[in-house]
Amino acid sequence: MRARTTSFIWMAAALATAPAWVHAHDYPTSERVTYVESCMRSFPGGHYELLNKCSCVIDRIAQEVPYDDFVTMSTAANANSIGGERGSYIRDVEPLQVQIRKFRQLQAQARKSCLLDAPH
Predict the structure, then answer these.
(1) Would you state the pLDDT for residue 112?
(2) 23-46: per-residue pLDDT in tens?
(3) How confident is the model at residue 9 (pLDDT cuts 50, 70, 90)?
(4) C-beta of residue 111 within 8 angstroms of C-beta of residue 59
(5) Does some domain include residue 12?
(6) How many domains are there within the chain?
(7) Which domain holds residue 98?
């Protein structure tokens, strides 16, 4: 009985001190890779430096929002730049604009914490 209690205590301590990414929401690997590739194209710098910084950004975002919310916010942010009448369907919907602002703020905070300067 004592061995089980000791094991449980060690397991609980390990989980409590685990890195933050362990507690992050689960994003598909392909989505993380796509985000990192896009991020690396948007910023100047060396390959390995950007790989680490951009990976850090998506990890920070994953800590904050579930994957489904990320998809909604990032899709709306990307669609917001569509010109003409089609784009007005996104620009004229206030709840989507709220999501876009939240996403951009989340990205800015993640970039800052990962030491990633403003894109060119």
Answers:
(1) 96
(2) 568 999 999 999 999 999 999 888
(3) low
(4) no
(5) no
(6) 1
(7) 25-113
